[in-house]
Amino acid sequence: MKTRIGILGLGGVGGYFGGLLAKAYTQSEAIEIVFIARGETQKAIVQNGLKIICSASSLSLGSDESEMIVFPNLVSNDPEEIGKLDYLICATKTYDIESSFLSIKNCITPKTIILPLYNGVDATERIEKLFPENTVLQGCVYIISMIVSPGVIRKIGPYEKLFFGSKTAPISKLNELQSIFEKAAIESYLVDTIEETVWEKFIFISALASATSYLNQNIGAILNNAANKAIYISLLNEITSVAFAKGLALPNDIVVQTIVKLEKSPQDATSSMHRDLLAGRNTEVVSLTKYVVDQAVKFGVATPTYQMILEKLTRD
């Protein structure tokens, strides 16, 4: 029997890492990769494959680009055609978690291992409510990637890391998944302190998404403008205070570490929430900004900058 891995959500994250899995295993006799997609994305991948364009360091087109086209074993949104899955890697937008999972609930058995790769930190809890019998891991990624058009993903810069883990999952299953990732040339890390790792990523992306969306500026314009950077640092201090109030064992210099991460990012890039806001699409403001405000209230932490930004982003 083949190990069947479903990829739910073929945006910047799911498309990129799913593409690496498809490249590695489409001809495998042991592993089957299934892209769960519909509409124009499904049509484009069936006809032309999934194209992944890698740019070395910026959004601009140039000779430092490479691309690959991959075909998974199956592209479908029909649960009967998809069948039962051994692993499900999910990377939709956070506001689509419940609806996307319920649309393929018949593909999920009690033995299906679920790996969420979302921007927020509450995905595991939300999925466990839907599927209380399943093992739901925790995970996060560091990558700058986005949809160019249906079936086409652009990844910017050299930085790409995937972290996952669980306090309750069988170690044999965790090691199996890590081996699958490694053989697909995915830089992945199976970590014991996964909750803290996910929160370190959340601190990075929540502050960045909130700042870029509020200021309508990219990374460079935030780092190189004193007033903008002051707002960003205020956000980092506030969300870090919430994390410490929750009892998370984060590094004492987490704010400095996060700023260094941002300084190493492409300066003309921005957050996915900012891109969605500019395009007039639904945004992840509930998971990336409001969640911090709600947790701050719960733990008695003051977050005036987050509150100010939340009021503006939910008013506009």
Characteristics:
316 residues; alpha/beta; Rossmann fold; N-(1-d-carboxylethyl)-l-norvaline Dehydrogenase, domain 2; five-stranded mixed β-sheet; 13 helices; 11 strands; 47% helix; 2-dehydropantoate 2-reductase activity; pantothenate biosynthesis
Can you walk through the features of this model?
The protein has 316 residues and is of the alpha/beta class. The protein has two domains: 3-192, Rossmann fold (3-Layer(aba) Sandwich), CATH 3.40.50.720; 196-315, N-(1-d-carboxylethyl)-l-norvaline Dehydrogenase, domain 2. Helix content is 47%, strand content 23%. It has 13 helices and eleven strands. The strands form two sheets. It has a six-stranded parallel β-sheet with strand order 5-2-1-6-7-8. Strands 3, 4, 9, 10 and 11 form a five-stranded mixed β-sheet that branches. The longest helix is centred in the middle third of the chain and has 22 residues, at 194-215. The mean pLDDT is 95.
Overall radius of gyration: 19 Å
Helix fraction? 40-55%
SSE pattern, N- to C-terminal: EHEHEEEHEHEHEEEHEHHHHHHH
CATH topology of the largest domain: Rossmann fold
> What is the terminal separation in angstroms?
52 Å
Largest sheet: 6 strands, parallel
The general outline is: globular
Strand segment tally = 11
Find the structural class using helix and strand composition.
Answer: alpha/beta
Oligomer classification: single chain
Our count of helices gives 13
For the record, the CATH architecture of the largest domain stands as 3-Layer(aba) Sandwich
Widest sheet, order of strands: 5-2-1-6-7-8
Unreliable stretches covering 5 or more consecutive residues: none
Name the CATH homologous superfamily of the largest domain: NAD(P)-binding Rossmann-like Domain
Mean pLDDT: 95
| Number of spatially distinct domains | 2
**Beta-strand content bin:** 15-25%
What's the CATH first level of the largest domain? Alpha Beta
Protein name: 2-dehydropantoate 2-reductase
Domain Ketopantoate reductase N-terminal: 5-165
GO molecular function: 2-dehydropantoate 2-reductase activity
Domain Ketopantoate reductase C-terminal: 194-313
